[in-house]
Design brief:
The chain is of the alpha/beta class and 302 residues long. 39% of the residues lie in helices and 16% in strands. It has a six-stranded parallel beta sheet with strand order 1-11-8-7-5-6. Strand 2, helix 2 and strand 3 form a beta-alpha-beta unit. The structure holds NADPH dihydro-nicotinamide-adenine-dinucleotide phosphate. The site of NADPH dihydro-nicotinamide-adenine-dinucleotide phosphate has 26 residues, from helix 10.
Length: 302
């Protein structure tokens, strides 16, 4: 790469806005058919970051014309109480999407709660039925929002996934594993040769350096530098880390898992943090909810 090379930025804000516009159009069409897509978010406790995420979800779904409700429960809520609420929402025909915000207080087992949500309303895509459908390649389930947002970014930016070496750093159930399952499918945005790395991987950088598409979701601030990247590669930074920064009035700044300044000198395309993957997650949540409502409308012949 010449010294002056700078990677093209993949603009998550613009791509997410385009998806939200498409969702708003679909919501308007559904309203004409007498169906108002409804998303209910359940927030247990008073985790500050969760409160911000939930407020953003409510604001965005309302802006798209959906019926949105946030149910706030105290941190002392028992598992039985939460399961009873989920059952009520499962049975409520006006609710097309249910999202229980994580993390949950320690007296509640998140896996039990996720398994309780009706798979056809699980717009987070975490229920084992939806995870299984994703792996098999069935498209009638829901795919987790962050990795499906990454696929949208790749496709809409014209990044060729077919035959590409895709390397993912991170194997969580919400990002790394579903990301791999999507990239390996034989369809648009798939057909990649996929490697998943994690904290036990031997010689991590030998893997990252041969990636045509490098997706980093490790939660480790700026762990991937320019010299860990193949020249011309597409780099997708999922990480969101708050680090101390005395030059900022707030005393901190948000950064990704990729050291942006060195990476943009080597990569062909790169997502910034903030303004990259982050905005895509909510856009995909809205899209999943509108799809759920479309399925209900189609099934009822409306
Ligand atoms: P987890 O902590 O659940 O998973 C992190 C993964 O990274 C683990 O598999 C871990 O390996 C691996 N890992 C950690 N350190 C290293 C290392 N040094 N080398 C190789 N692998 C490593 O995180 P999440 O998947 O939930 O999130 C990842 C990041 O993405 C976070 O910064 C999070 O804030 C962000 N995020 C952003 C979203 C968005 O909307 N933009 C949404 C979701 C997450 P092991 O399994 O061996 O421990």
């Amino acid at each position: 790469m010449p010294a002056e090379h700078v990677a093209q930025r993949i603009d998550g804000v613009a791509i997410a806005a385009a998806i939200r516009d498409e969702v708003a159009r679909d919501v308007a069409l559904l309203r004409e058919r007498g169906v108002v897509p409804g998303l209910t978010v359940v927030l247990v406790g008073d985790d500050a970051a969760s409160a911000v995420y939930v407020a953003n979800k409510e604001k965005s779904s309302k802006a798209a014309g959906m019926a949105s409700e946030t149910i706030r429960l105290p941190s002392t809520t028992s598992q039985a109480e939460l399961l009873a609420l989920v059952e009520r929402l499962n049975a409520d025909e006006s609710v097309h999407g249910i999202l229980v915000q994580m993390p949950l207080p320690s007296q509640i087992d998140a896996d039990v709660v996720i398994r309780h949500i009706a798979p056809e309303k699980d717009v987070d895509g975490f229920h084992p039925v939806n995870v299984g459908k994703l792996l098999i390649g069935h498209t009638d389930g829901f795919m987790p929002c962050t990795p499906s947002g990454v696929i949208e970014m790749l496709v809409r930016s014209g990044v060729e996934t077919r035959g590409a070496e895709a390397v993912i750093v991170g194997r969580s159930n919400i990002v790394g594993k579903p990301m791999a399952a999507m990239l390996v499918q034989s369809r648009a945005g798939g057909d990649a040769t996929v490697t998943i790395c994690h904290s036990r991987s031997r010689d991590l950088h030998a893997h990252t350096r041969r990636a045509d598409i490098l997706i980093v979701a490790a939660g480790k601030a700026e762990m991937i530098h320019g010299d860990h990247i193949k020249p011309g590669a597409t780099v997708i930074d999922v990480g969101m880390n708050r680090v101390a920064d005395s030059t900022r009035a707030s005393g901190s700044r948000l950064c990704g898992d990729v050291h942006f300044a060195s990476a943009e000198r080597v990569a062909g395309r790169i997502t910034p943090v903030p303004g990259g993957v982050g905005p895509m997650t909510i856009a995909m949540l809205l899209r999943n909810t509108v799809r759920s409502a479309q399925r209900v409308a189609d099934a009822s012949g409306r």
